[in-house]
Write the C-alpha cells for this entry.
Amino acid sequence: MDSDAEKGVTSPLTSAAAVRQRLNNRLNAQSWDINKLIVPALVGVAITAAIIYILSISIHRVDEGFVAVYYRGGALVKEVTGPGLHMRLPIITTYKSIQITPQTDELVNVPCGTSGGVIITFGRIEVVNILKQDAVHDVVKSYTVDYDKPLIHNKVHHEINQFCSRHTIQEVYIDLFDTIDENLKTALQKELHTLAPGLEVQAVRVTKPIIPEQIRKNYEQMEAEKTMLLVAMQRQKVVEKEAETERKRALIEAEKESQVADIHNKRKIAEKEREQSINKIANNMLLEKEKASVDAAKYKIETESAAFQKILTPEYLELQRIKAIEKNNKIYYGDKIPTAFLMTNDSPKNENNSPRKSEPKALEINPFQDILNNGQSVGTPLFGTELPLFSDYYCMNREQGTPLTTTRSERPSTPIPYGDGYGHRQRDDAARGHFIKLIVCVILTVGLLIFAAVIFASIHQVQEGFVAVYYRGGALVNSVNGPGYHLKLPGITTHKLIQVTPQTDELLNVPCGTSGGVIITFGRIEVVNILRKDAVHDIVKNYTVDYDKPLIYNKVHHEINQFCSRHTIQEVYIDLFDKIDENLKTALQKELSELAPGLEVQAVRVTKPKIPEQIRENYELMEAEKTKLLVATQRQRVVEKEAETERKRALIEAEKESQVADIRNKQKISEKEREQSINKIANTILLEKEKAEADAALYKSEKESIAYQKLLTPQYLELKRIEAIEKNNKIFYGDKIPTAFLSPIGKTIEAAKSK
C-alpha cells in the first residue's frame, strides 16, 4: 500500500511536524544572521581598542622645561627630544624626563662635626642648578638620570663636613656662617666644571644649623647678657652722676692720700737713709772682722807651711810608711802588683786565715732533643676526622599532567534552509532594517554627545587680572591669552592661569639666627610683586607656573638668614629693624632683574620678630633705669663735703707720724755708731790672739824637726821596719818585685833625696 505522502494526502500529524520544523529552521536562520552582524562589530572594536592601546603606549608627552632621553634594550641612545608629543617603540624603548630649567635640590638634615667634636645639623641646604640641553646626553650617560645624587648631594655632604671639621662651632654657627653658601657654591662649581660640563650651580642657600640644646641656650644666655649692656647704657646717666660724685670724692681722697703719701715718703726716705747708714756701719764692722780673720788665717798657714817644710824629711816619711805597714796583717808581693800592697780584709779566707781560691765552674749545657728526623719535619695531623663528602645529588621525579582535551560542536556543513514559502522572509528583512536603523541612531546620538562634550571642554574662561598659558603635549606654546573666552584642543592642550595684577606672597614664621647665635622668628613677611604680561611666557618657561617659590619664597628665607647672621639681636630688633624691608626689597629686585626680568617687587612688609623672653624683659628693664638719675644728683653734694673733711684730718695725722719717725731714726743711727766702735776693738783683740797661737805652733814644729833629724838614723828606721814586718802573720813573695817598697833603707832614703 502506498504511503500518504505518495498519494498526496497529508495527515494532521505530518502537517504539524512540518510546521514545527519550518519554525525551527526560521529561528536558526535569524540567529545566524544576527551573529553575522555582531561578530564583525566585536572584531572591529577589538582591533580598534588594540590600535588605541598601542598608540597610547607609543605616544608620550614631554612637559615644558624638560627633555626626554631614551633607552633601547637598556642602552642609552643619542636622541634627546624637547617638550611635546613623541612616538617610541613600545616595550622596546623606554624614556626618562630630564629637567633643563633651574631646579632646586634640597638636602634635609645634613649632619657634620666641628673641629671641637660637636655634631650639628643643617636643617635644609638648597642648591639651585640648571643642566644645559646640549649636555644632557653626556651627563646622563656618565651619571644616569639621577645625576644630582653623585654630583650634588654627595659633594654637598663632603664639603659641609670638610668645612665643619676645619672650624669651631663658634665659627660655623656665627663668625663664618654668612660665607658658607658662597664657599659651597664655589667648590661645587669647580668640581662640576671638571666632572660634568654643562651643569651649573646658580645659587646655594643654607639655613642656620641646629646645634645642641645646651649650647643654644648658652648663646641665648650670652645674648641676654649683652642686652644687659643696653640696660647699663640707660643706667649710664645714673652712673655718670654717681661716678662724678665718686670722682670728686676720689679726687679729694687722692689729694689727701697724695699729701699723706708725700709725708710718709719723706719719712720712709729718712728711715731708708737711717737704715743705709746703719747698714754701712754694720758692713764696715763685718769687713773689719773678716779682714782680721783672714789676716790671722794667712799668718797661721804661712807659719804651718814653714814648719811642715822643716819636719817632712825623707826619714820622717819613711817612718810614717813603716807605721802604716804595722796596721796591715797581710802583704802581697808579685810582679803584677806594682803599687797595690794593701789588701782588703773582705776577701774570702780558709780556715787557716789564708785567701781561698775559687775554682771556675764548668758551663753546664742541657742537651737538646732532636726536632728533625732524617732531615725532614715530622708533622702531626691536627684533626683525625675527614669532612663528609656529598657524592649524589638527585631530585624526585614528579608526575606529568595529562593535557585536557576539549571538544566543541561543529556547525552543520549543510546550509539551513531559510524561508518557509509562507511570507515570513519579508518580515525578517523588515526587522533587520529596523535593527540597523536603531544602531545608526545610537551611533549618531553618541557622536553628538561626544561632539558637545568636546566643544564644552575646548571652551575655557580667563578671569580679569589673569592671562592663560597653554601646554600642548606638555610643551609650552607661544600664545598667551588675556581675559575672556577662548578655545583649545581638549585632551591635547591644557592651560594655566597666571596673575598679572599685584599679588602678595606671604611667608609665615621665618626663622633666622643672629650673629650672637640667638634664634628669632619673623611671624609674617609679605612681598608685594607684579608680573608683567609680556614677561609671562619667558618666566613660566624657565620657572613653571609656580615661579614665586624659587624666585621669591626661597630668596626671602635666604636674605633674611644672611641679614640676621651679619647683625646682632640689638641691631635686628631695634637699631636696623626699620631698614630690613627696604634692604630685602633691594636684594630681591636685584636678583629678579638678572634671573626673571619682568617680575617686579613693589613692597616688602616685615613684622617685629619674636625674641627670647629673657631678652625682652631686659629691654623693659632698660626703661626703668632712667628714673634713677635724680637720686644720684642730690647725693653728689653730700659726698663732696664728707671727703673734704676726711682729707684735712688725714693730713694732720700724717704730719704727726712723720715728725715722730725723724726723732726715732736719729736715735737708731747713734746706737749703731757706738756698736761699730765696740766691734773694732774686738777685732783687734782677735787678730793679736791668732798671731800668738800661730807663733807658738811654729816654734813647736821647729823644735820637733831638730829632734827628728837626730833620732831618725838609718839604723833606727831599719829597726822599725823589722818590727813592722814581725807584726804581719802572712807575707806573699813573687819572682819579680820591681817596685817592692821594702828595700834596704839606705837606698830608699837616697832615692827620695835624689828626687
